[in-house]
Design brief:
- The protein is built from three helices and two strands, in the order ββααα.
- It is α+β, with helices and mostly antiparallel strands.
- The chain has a domain of 55 residues.
- It has a two-stranded antiparallel sheet.
- Strand 1 and strand 2 form a beta hairpin.
- Helix 2 crosses helix 3.
- The longest helix is centred in the last third of the chain and has 23 residues.
- The mean pLDDT is 88.
């Protein structure tokens, strides 16, 4: 999981200052804040997307991921813990 980006000097949350389009080479500068989900890694985001699209149906999640119920549950529990950690870091 990608942890909340913290300042190496003070540890507070950092913000995104530049967005760039690799296709047309446009760069936008400013102050941009990432949503909590933006700090999850790609695998976790894919899991969350599938979880929402299946309306949380664990049986369908088993089929999509090709894993057992305990594995799906374990991955969900890890993402929940990661999100709780991110939220806790945002509050500090």
């Amino acid at each position: 999981m990608m942890k909340t980006i913290g300042c190496p000097g003070c540890g507070k949350k950092m913000v995104i200052k530049t967005l760039h389009c690799a296709q047309c080479d446009i760069t936008v500068t400013g102050t941009f804040y990432s949503h909590t989900f933006g700090y999850l890694d790609k695998d976790s985001l894919d899991f969350v997307e599938n979880f929402i699209l299946t309306r949380g149906n664990m049986k369908e999640m088993e089929e999509i991921l090709g894993v057992s119920y305990p594995t799906v549950k374990s991955r969900l529990d890890k993402i929940i813990k990661d999100l709780q950690d991110i939220k806790r870091n945002e509050e500090n």
